[in-house]
Design brief:
This protein is an alpha/beta fold. It is built from twelve helices and 25 strands. The protein has a five-stranded parallel β-sheet, with no helix packed on it. The relative contact order is 0.15.
Length: about 425
């Protein structure tokens, strides 16, 4: 692999939506030596993690190895975690004991689950932020159903088959819908012992609506679709504890549940060496309208890690969603290429392409053009499927995912309900 000996060294931390969209603009470029650092050796498509967790897709359908992606592209890759950063020396210390020097450092390491300091939830709930989490969730759910099928105690069976999902955003809603479909069409086929078993799926959110940022039509449609699938919706409430298989709420209610799935918020990943003065709400790095981190030279942040207060449309910062990460990654890359040509940078401006979520097998909700256009039902489902297929990083991913979806849709079933021990 050869580089321009005069190229500036760019280190990118994280290969998610933001990092990968940044890096892809530098394939075989002559201006920069780009190295991507990630703790995993693969990129994965976050919006479909829940389908791996509920056995509808295999991990390889939504993942692709970085080294294969970067073949013949003159992009370096290092699989490692970041221990600390030294902005003064412009060095990054990695978990493999190596030290990388940089001319420019780009943070795109995303976020992690926010448990809001509740230790019992952190220890006992299931979260969903990566492929490892998705596999843990899949195994846990399947093992729980095996235990429910084996027990002769009806109260224990009901408890095991009761699931509480905390968080009414896209992840929580989509998990609730998928689990409800499985309960309705698959559970008694695989587990005839559970034919007359009780239990319920609950979704809880502290706000007045599920999918709160979306339109009023979406709020109503989502509520109707989930309740139609048998999901119990609880609003204006927060989970405060999960111990001894009991989920406690701030309104005093307690639900006995074998599983608590936590989808109630995220917090940006933090790194030693970044001063507290450069961090804003949620530990996100405060950046200017060029995504440069405040108070630091040659350090940038994009995606979930960045918070900008320069956009009058989003005075509290942009939402931590995939489209922001993708657009910031592309915008920053274009600015780096402008810089190499001696041209002025362009400030980042977010274009909201809309929001969407799938609710069960037949339903989806889509809001476009800042909620001016609302689509639901089968048409919205087609839009959701199309957008997610074309967004996958590789042709093989697209084919595998499309096949799995068609099979599951036509048969009301899927073939991946195996427990693999690691």
């Amino acid at each position: 692999m050869t580089f321009n000996e005069n190229g500036k060294k760019v280190i990118v931390i994280g290969g998610g939506f933001a990092g990968l969209n940044f890096v892809q603009h530098f394939y075989n470029n002559k201006h920069y030596e780009v190295t991507l650092v990630d703790k995993n050796n693969y990129n994965y498509f976050t919006p479909l993690l829940y389908q791996v967790a509920t056995s509808f897709l295999e991990p390889s359908s939504i993942s692709y190895p970085f080294r294969k992606l970067f073949r013949d592209k003159n992009i370096s890759f290092r699989m490692a975690g970041v221990l600390k950063v030294d902005p003064a020396e412009q060095k990054v210390y990695l978990s493999d004991e190596s030290i990388l020097s940089y001319d420019y450092l780009v943070f795109a390491a995303g976020s992690q689950t926010n448990f809001y300091g509740i230790e019992s939830i952190k220890q006992n709930a299931i979260s969903l932020k990566g492929v490892d989490d998705a596999l843990i969730m899949r195994n846990t759910l399947l093992k729980t159903m095996e235990r429910a099928a084996a027990t002769t105690d009806p109260e224990e069976r009901t408890r095991l088959l009761t699931i509480v999902i905390a968080g009414g955003g896209p992840t929580g809603v989509e998990v609730a819908g998928m689990l409800a479909e499985m309960r309705r069409f698959i559970l008694t086929k695989d587990y005839p012992e559970l034919k007359h078993a009780k239990g319920a799926i609950h979704i809880v959110d502290g706000g007045a609506n599920l999918l709160a940022p979306m339109s009023e039509k979406t709020h109503k449609g989502t509520y109707k679709a989930l309740t139609g699938l048998g999901v119990k919706v609880k609003l204006h409430a927060h989970v405060t504890d999960y111990s001894n298989h009991k989920v406690s709420f701030d309104d005093g209610e307690v639900i006995e549940a074998g599983t608590l799935i936590w989808a109630a918020g995220v917090i940006a990943n933090a790194f030693e060496g970044i001063p507290a003065s450069s961090l804003g709400p949620g530990r996100r790095m405060k950046t200017d309208h060029f995504n440069k981190v405040e108070g630091l030279d040659n350090i940038f942040a994009i995606g979930d890690m960045s918070i900008q207060f320069t956009d009058p449309v989003y005075p509290k910062g942009h939402p931590q969603v995939a489209q922001v990460a993708i657009q910031q990654g592309r915008a920053l890359a274009k600015n780096f290429l402008l810089l190499a040509k001696g041209k002025p940078s362009k400030p980042f401006k977010y274009f909201d392409r809309g929001d969407m979520a799938i609710v069960g097998r037949h339903n989806a909700v889509v809001d476009l053009f800042k909620h001016k256009v609302h689509i639901n039902g089968f048409v919205a489902l087609f839009v959701w499927l199309f957008i997610h297929i074309v967004s996958l990083v590789n042709y093989n991913n697209k084919v595998r995912t499309l096949y799995s979806w068609i099979y599951a849709y036509l048969t009301r079933d899927q073939v991946l309900r195996m427990i693999f021990k690691t």
